[in-house]
Amino acid sequence: MSSHRIAVIPGDGIGREVVPAARAVLDAVTARHAVSFEYEEFDWSCGGYLRDGTMMPPDGIERLRSFDAIFLGAVGDPRVPDHVSLWGLLIPIRRAFRQYVNLRPARLFPGVDGPLRAGSAIDLVVVRENVEGEYSEIGGRLSRGFPDEMAVQEAVFTRPGVTRIVDYALELAAGRSGRLTSATKSNGIVHTMPFWDEIVSERAAAHSTVEVTREHIDALCAKVVLDPGRFDVIVGSNLFGDILSDLTAAVTGSIGMAPSANLNPERDFPSMFEPVHGSAPDIAGRGVANPVGAIWSAAMMLDHLGHREAGAEVVDAIAATLADGSVRTPDLGGTATTGEFTGAVVAALGQR
Ligand code: NAI
Ligand code: MG
Q: What is the pLDDT at residue 118?
């Protein structure tokens, strides 16, 4: 029996609805694979912020450090500014635990109608740099309240930071199609992006089996809409990867389906798994959130913890449930609740 300690942060809104869904599927699959997960739940959220004035306690990072993985729902509340919730919880965790790879797969599952007319097969992964780049604390504001008020925010790209994310993406691509697309904007952003491109070229030379293509982010967005099937692994900076992965989620049917892993590949610290979507205040509390993003994130967690077969079974059960089509949540045009869909995924697991 292989056992792991998992820190669970349900968060706010539909985070609290999709986390139990993912746990139900994990319970079902771990029982079949002689894996045991011991969960500890942390009620850190915007709700907590409104109550106590902090998103997480001062020793929050220390309390998470000894876990094997962190599973997060979503944080966000209309009463709390989004930069407070993001910088008070998610970003500190990503940075303290050096989760510099943000992996965001997107697949158009059979049976799901994406919004695109030409339904080509889509099965790609966005590899987003997760701890530096445009999401930088370096900068500030001056002359607040005066007509010449200003804000400066410096994008930070380091040689080790770009090298490790590009290497990760190259290795991932080598194990898939052998094709990697690098998102850039070196025509307009004249310091950091040519630097990014240079490192991509250097690292590509060291991974000669992978064919690397460079695309400016604006043109790349257009191509992802026009012909998503041509892409396999796409690597981008923190901002480009974030925007691109919402786009790839949208073209595969619903933002509710997109999973993500925040990885510390060296395994010095716990990695964190979370759906890409937010707390969705517009549908929260109705029990109709699509749990696929959370369940698929749980599959990525199984994979990371060394249970590849169990992870693959979960993704297959999601695929089988979507292909069957009789049970689906409202975002995919159905009428099922989160619980009904989850029950169908658990049943599909049992039928293997
Ligand atoms: P969102 O992802 O919460 O919602 C965008 C739209 O997609 C909404 O119409 C929502 O109903 C729908 N949607 C999202 N997930 C869904 C699901 N699983 N099933 C069905 N429909 C789904 O993004 P939004 O509205 O920009 O942000 C809401 C809050 O969430 C904000 O406070 C934001 O800061 C926060 N947020 C948190 C994230 C996180 O915790 N990682 C990520 C993104 C946003
Ligand atoms: Mg995003």
A: 64
